[in-house]
Specification:
Helices cover 64% and strands 14% of the residues. By secondary structure, it is of the alpha+beta class.
């Protein structure tokens, strides 16, 4: 009998484990990094950019170094000018041969174009990841705010119960009991509004990660406050300069402009055109034959086979591609200046984000260690005094409002810390090495 019971229990356990979500806690929660991976995998815009970049790289590698040869066919006849015996046919093959490395320069420009687009694509991925992380943080904060409002609603219900008990005992005026009931209704309205706000944020997050409906979005993982990065500021700044895709794209843009300048100088050198031709000419001329001692007029037909070699070279007397060279040289100088500007902007952004992140983390720690516990303890004291009939309900409601304001300030500090941490991750190139817990 015990063996049968054990076997039944094992079968039931296997069935529960086989069906996901039946056991409490087995349903996987959605972390911020999981949401980022889903968004990057499901974004149709990123997929389109991937196909475009693939085509640019293939086009750069398949760019020819020489132009196509030119085949010329020519036929002449004197039939319309009363010279039917005059005929010629020729075939000519022309090939343009560059005297400079213009083809190689064009391929270098095409490769630089593809590299710039690829780096802009990485920058777009960083922006999308930052947007998804902040949307996840906003949804998680709205969920915590709803939990706080539910706790506030429970406190309002407790106060209403105490008020009714004291009113029934004749120890509390009726208007204070009505104040307690009004506070509960107000709190339930706030809770309903917060539920709507949470649904709105979840819809936005679901749209970013590529889900059709909010119901398909898994429950969010618990929020973990980010810790300060362990790397010194100067190392983080150096890391940002090394890995930021926007700065790398601007550097590659400067290389592309230098390649354009080299191409413009190469195109200033004229190309040599070499032609090989073959001509078949048929003609006739008047001739006289001696027949029986008399000169008889006639015609003598001839056929000539002619091979030819043709060389042509433009003379750079009026145009040496001066306009294109001047424009390319100006773009090279402008690209270098823009690269320096982007580098300075990146460093300033990282410094600013570090300051905001430290301030938000310090404020969050202060709320959690000092302000929050004090506000909760004050409310507990006031509630006890109200239960004992020592104070009126208005003092308790004021303390409840102060607790809610403190909790709201703590949530805002947490959200600022999460958002600044996400932006800091994007500012240093996508990852935060040697940092603490990430959201």
């Amino acid at each position: 009998m015990r063996i049968i019971c054990h076997a039944s229990a094992l079968c039931l356990f296997a069935l529960i484990c086989a069906v996901p979500g039946l056991v409490l806690g087995t349903e996987s929660s959605l972390t911020a990094e999981m949401a980022v991976r889903m968004a990057l995998a499901n974004s149709p815009e990123l997929s389109a950019d991937t196909e475009e970049i693939k085509g640019l790289h293939e086009a750069a590698e398949k760019m020819p170094l020489l132009t196509n040869p030119l085949l010329e066919l020519e036929a002449k006849s004197g039939a319309l000018t009363k010279s039917p015996d005059e005929k010629s046919a020729s075939i000519t093959l022309l090939q343009e041969i560059p005297l400079s490395a213009a083809g190689t320069r064009r391929r270098a420009v095409a490769r630089a174009d593809a590299a710039v687009v690829s780096l802009r694509f990485e920058e777009k991925k960083l922006r999308l990841a930052d947007q998804v992380r902040r949307a996840w943080s906003a949804s998680a904060i709205e969920r915590q705010r709803l939990d706080l409002l539910r706790t506030q609603t429970e406190i309002a219900e407790t106060l209403l119960t105490i008020a009714r008990e004291r009113f029934a005992a004749g120890d509390l005026p009726e208007f204070e009991a009505q104040l307690a009931e009004l506070e509960l209704r107000r709190q339930m309205l706030r809770q309903t509004e917060q539920q709507v706000a949470l649904l709105s944020m979840r819809r936005q997050l679901a749209s970013l990660v590529g889900l059709a409906e909010e119901q398909e979005l898994p429950p969010l993982a618990p929020v973990v406050a980010p810790s300060l990065p362990l790397l010194p500021d100067e190392q983080l700044l150096a890391l940002a300069v090394e890995r930021r895709p926007d700065l790398a794209a601007q550097k590659k843009e400067a290389e592309r402009q230098e390649a354009n300048l080299g191409l413009a100088k190469a195109e200033a050198v004229p190309n040599l055109t070499v032609g090989l031709s073959y001509t078949n000419e048929r003609s006739s001329q008047n001739a006289y034959d001696l027949q029986g001692g008399l000169l008889v007029p006639g015609k003598e037909r001839t056929t000539d086979h002619i091979l030819g070699l043709k060389l042509s070279l433009p003379l750079p007397l009026f145009s040496r591609n001066q306009a294109a060279i001047a424009k390319a040289a100006g773009m090279v100088g402008a690209s270098r200046q823009r690269t320096e500007a982007v580098r300075r902007t990146a460093l300033a952004e990282v410094r600013d984000l570090l300051a905001h992140h430290r301030l938000a983390t310090t404020a969050l720690e202060l709320h959690r260690t000092a302000l929050g516990p004090a506000a909760r303890e004050n409310l507990k004291t006031q509630e006890t005094a109200f239960r004992l009939g020592e104070i009126g309900i208005q003092l308790v409601l004021d303390e409840k409002r102060r607790l809610f304001e403190q909790q709201e300030a703590e949530l805002k500090a947490l959200q600022v810390a999460l958002e600044s941490h996400s932006r800091l991750i994007a500012a240093v190139g996508g990852t935060m090495p040697d940092s603490g817990g990430r959201p």
